[in-house]
Amino acid sequence: MEGKIYLDHAATTPLDREVFEKMIPFYTDVFGNADSLHSFGRSGQNAVDNARDKIAELIGAKPSEIYFTSGGTESDNWAMLGGAYAMKKQGKTHLLTSSIEHHAVLSSAERLEKDGFDVEYLPVNAGGRVEIAEVQKRLRADTALVAVMGANNETGAIQPIKEIGELVKKNGSLFFTDCVQYAPYRKINVADINADMISISSHKFYGPKGCGVLYVKKGVAVEKLIAGGEQERGMRGGTLNVPSIVGFAYAFEKCVQEQERNAEKLKTLREVFLRELLKIDGVTLNGEFVEEKSVPSVVNVRIEGVDNGTFLYNMDLNGIAVAAGSACASASLKPSHVLTAMGLTEKQAKSSVRFSFGKDNTKEELLFTAKTVEKIVKKLKSK
Ligand code: PLP
Prior knowledge:
Layout: E1 5-6, H1 17-23, H2 25-28, H3 39-58, E2 66-69, H4 72-88, E3 94-98, H5 103-114, E4 118-122, H6 132-138, E5 143-147, H7 161-171, E6 174-178, H8 190-193, E7 197-201, E8 212-216, H9 231-234, H10 242-277, E9 283-285, E10 298-303, H11 308-317, E11 320-321, H12 337-341, H13 346-349, E12 352-356, H14 363-382
Parallel strand pairs: 1-11, 3-4, 3-5, 5-6, 6-7
Antiparallel strand pairs: 2-8, 7-8, 9-10, 10-12
Helix pairs in contact: 1-10, 3-10, 4-5, 10-14, 11-14
Bound molecules: pyridoxal-5'-phosphate.
């Protein structure tokens, strides 16, 4: 097969060329600082306003509820720290989050723990999903914030955020959901989810890297994270990244418009791939695929007796890019916290691999990948 095969779309996606074309003028001609009062600035501000309106409309929010950030990580940090510190003023210092969150959320939780917050981690079932009863059991009068992601980046398991949001709302606590992996595959309607805060990142749906959004529901008081100028209604300092904000809005619009069509395609790719993959001796699916409770683009398997680092390296030598889990943790040798939370042993977690497809992958690529996996597994086992 000619060329390389990219199967790591959960880590990042390529920038859509059409989106890139829309961004270019904002690097060169319309370069003004969006907060400058002259015409150069106003042109930038107009573009930001249009992007904000578009994004708000796509998730059923008001433009004033959309804040631009430098990506999913900043949005997650802001929601966790800003939400927790605001609630501390009401005497609430208990936090609930899941054990399978992205490190941007977990590291923020650890920081809050050091700062005196009482943090509890929700377990997940073998399918990698939080059970509502586990949330219900742990909610307290002093629960400040509950953070449960929309879809997990390592397994693709969708979490029951709507139901959790309802419980949390009734309890008078804040609900934050990291929708970085959910937004590319499921339509978001803020009213349905009952969330006070939602994070989204543009590079997961063919938009530019380094650009995120935090939705903050009207009336929810969060403390600011980035001090500086009066940008973003005084809530987030820093010159706005106009080209990327424009790119975010276009990419997101396109993503929502194509969501159903792409989901069908990804579903077919997934079925074909998994059928071939599971025929290979020693390959077992991690988690449980339930169509309405999974994003269609992720397959996480373990390969008995194979170290995932060595496997990845061999796949790469064969021109195929896959991942051992989250890209943010791939430099560490630790087994995945997501897989061990699901009950896998450390050894099983260290033999696990994530394949994540994109809209431009083909059936031929996936059949070739499955054949290559078979070849590499045989080679590694024979050693
Ligand atoms: N949250 C989840 C679930 C993610 O998968 C990622 C990125 O992989 C992030 C947050 C961080 O987003 P960003 O890369 O935009 O900082």
